[in-house]
Specification:
The protein is of the alpha+beta class and 342 residues long. The chain is built from 13 helices and 5 strands.
């Protein structure tokens, strides 16, 4: 690192050695990447199934996916097309591998409620604009730590802050239980983080003069075009569109929960039952109820919600130890959709 804040040839060499994974499957960097990725996927999937935050954090630290993602940014700055293609393929292949492992564990250990009460799942299926902002900041720190060897000890914190493997594990688990919309939402969170890392990495590497230092060290440097930056920004804008929709949806769901909770509590009190949880997912009111038979009538709750201005919201009622009832918006009857766990 020079006094002017630009990188030197040695720094560029260190970065390329760190971020560009060798082509040979038997090379140290390749075996390390795939070995750690598989282990991280198993840890993350098991942590999600067990609803263990500590286990999921462990997977974040082990996961090596940030390497080819930042490698994509470095390859874009160097205009090295072959490395761009290789890094992108590694990211896509790694992502598919994690999803596949998540699906495998889902087939083995999916709970009866299809992860409806799992906090690790619920925290990753409603990506918002704030997630993009956090990812941009975290990606900047990650790129900065790579350029500045003297602050590289911040990388474990970056690995925890930027969520890469856990959303993919959630995607695989939710595909297994047929929650395809939510699986897409967790995949969107992963895509958001990837786009943010590539964008911030590209900017940081350009600011620190990676191209000039690479030329001085006789490394391949292609012609950098402004359209590369335009494409990166364009991807961020495309990602921001569904995130904006998600932000509005989360805001509406929170209002729906605030309105539905007192109505549900009044309904449950009539049968001496207790409300275990009240949630809203994409405009669907999801209520968990605890109590002994006889159970209060689900249709009575449907009517109460309609009477209080929530006639356009579907109702999913989980009777703990009993059955799950679905009461469609505008309807007067409820259908049983499955049995709950005792």
């Amino acid at each position: 690192m020079t006094a002017m804040g630009k990188v030197d040839a040695a720094t560029v060499g260190r970065m390329t050695d760190t971020l560009f994974i060798e082509r040979s499957w038997k090379s140290p960097s390749s075996t390390r990447f795939w070995g750690l990725l598989v282990l991280a996927a198993v840890i993350a999937s098991a942590g999600v199934v067990g609803d263990s935050t500590a286990t999921v954090i462990g997977a974040m630290i082990v996961a090596p996916l940030m390497t080819p993602i930042l490698g994509s940014a470095l390859a874009l700055v160097l205009a090295d097309r072959s490395q761009v293609v290789r890094c992108v393929l590694l990211v896509l292949g790694g992502a598919l591998a994690v999803v596949a492992i998540g699906m495998l564990l889902g087939w083995i250990a999916a709970p009866p409620d299809d992860f409806a009460s799992n906090s690790q799942v619920s925290s990753r299926i409603s990506p918002r604009l704030i997630d993009l902002l956090a990812a941009l900041a975290t990606g900047t720190v990650g790129a900065f730590a790579l350029v500045r060897a003297d602050i590289s000890d911040t990388l474990p914190g970056v690995a925890i802050a930027i969520s890469l493997v856990p959303p993919l594990a959630v995607t695989g688990l939710l595909i297994t239980v047929g929650r395809f919309h939510d699986a897409g939402e967790s995949a969107l969170l992963f895509a958001t983080n990837v786009a943010a890392i590539v964008a911030t990495g590209t900017v940081v590497f350009l600011v620190y003069g990676i191209r000039g230092a690479a030329q001085e060290s006789a490394q391949y440097v292609g012609e950098f075009h402004g359209r590369t930056l335009v494409a990166v920004v364009g991807v961020l804008v495309l990602i921001a569109v569904p995130l904006t929709t998600g932000t509005v949806s989360v805001w509406r769901d929170r209002l729906l929960v605030a309105d539905a909770r007192p109505v549900a509590e009044e309904w449950a009190a009539s049968g001496k039952w207790q409300i275990a949880s009240v949630e809203a997912r994409q405009g669907v009111v999801v209520i968990g109820v605890l109590g002994l038979p006889p159970q209060p009538a689900p249709t009575a709750l449907r009517t109460a919600l309609d009477r209080n201005g929530m006639s356009d919201a579907d109702l999913e009622l989980h009777l703990v130890g009993g059955r799950t009832h679905w009461c469609a918006a505008g309807g007067v009857t409820c259908e049983v959709r499955g049995t709950g766990s005792g």
